[in-house]
Design a protein that fits this description.
Structural class: alpha/beta
CATH class: Alpha Beta
Largest sheet: 5 strands, mixed
Helix content: 25-40%
CATH superfamily: Ribonuclease H-like superfamily/Ribonuclease H
Shape: globular
Number of helices: 7
Number of strands: 9
Strand order of the largest sheet: 3-2-1-6-7
Strand content: 15-25%
Order of helices and strands: EEEEEHHHEEHHHHEE
């Protein structure tokens, strides 16, 4: 499989209400592009959506603008008026994402699996997807924890920049975390003892075989081999401790 040098980092914000459970319609898609060759963030985008609910009237389902609750406004900064004025219809945004950002073919990065839920109803060709939270958990050996974006950023020496619950700013910070984790993983290639002494001696998968750590020895950590499959630089590197 050939991967593009450009990665799309995606975050979504949904309508929410204090008295209702679950996610409402998506009201904003944030997207940040990364160049894997230069390891730099290119640009961040905000795509507000004129979200609608379908209400039954006289036996018909009629689309109505989503009512943005005070809670949702406090979290995201969006109001019903701003969405109707600045937003586009979902299918227009989807078309733009396909044409401008190759959303169905470039690798997609997000911090939760449900960030890409809009793919389920829009296309059959889903992109290669990496959950940066899972990547962080494996890199730091916290596979039983579900940490916040703030916590994950702090662990790599970063802090959140911008407004929280802005899809654009969230995607930008997820992109920063992703690049930092790539550097951490590449650093393990140069310092394999750091990884080998950690109690992860099994095959691990992130996305499409991003990392594979395999135990080949018995008791002595120096008997272990570390294999990292790095599809971003298109190489397979066996690393042996000195």
């Amino acid at each position: 499989m050939k991967l593009s040098n450009i990665v799309n980092v995606i975050d979504t914000e949904s309508a929410c209400w204090p008295d209702k459970k679950g996610l409402g319609p998506i009201i904003e898609i944030g997207l940040t592009t990364i160049d894997l060759k230069t390891k730099q963030i290119i640009k961040s985008y905000s795509y507000p959506i004129k979200a609608v609910d379908y209400v039954e009237e006289n036996g018909y389902l009629v689309p109505k603008p989503v009512d943005i609750s005070p809670l949702c406004h406090e979290l995201t900064g969006w109001t019903s008026h701003k969405l109707q004025k600045q937003g586009k219809r979902f299918w227009d945004v989807w078309r733009l994402l396909k044409e401008k950002h190759a959303i169905t073919s470039r690798m997609a990065v997000a911090d939760q699996d449900d960030e890409l839920r809009f793919f389920n109803s829009t296309c059959y060709d889903k992109p290669t997807f990496i959950n940066v939270s899972a990547l962080w958990s494996l890199a730091f050996d916290y596979r039983d924890k579900n940490e916040s974006l703030d916590c994950m950023l702090e662990s790599v020496g970063l802090s959140f920049e911008g407004r929280k619950h802005s899809a654009k700013d969230d995607s930008y910070n997820i992109a920063r975390l992703f690049l930092a984790l790539l550097e951490c993983l590449r650093g393990e290639l140069n310092n394999p003892i750091n990884r080998i002494n950690k109690p992860i001696y099994e095959v691990l998968y992130v996305g499409d075989l991003l990392i594979q750590v395999q135990s080949l020895g018995n008791k002595d950590p120096l008997d272990k081999q570390l294999f990292i499959i790095d599809k971003f630089v298109k190489k397979f590197t066996p690393v042996l401790p000195d």
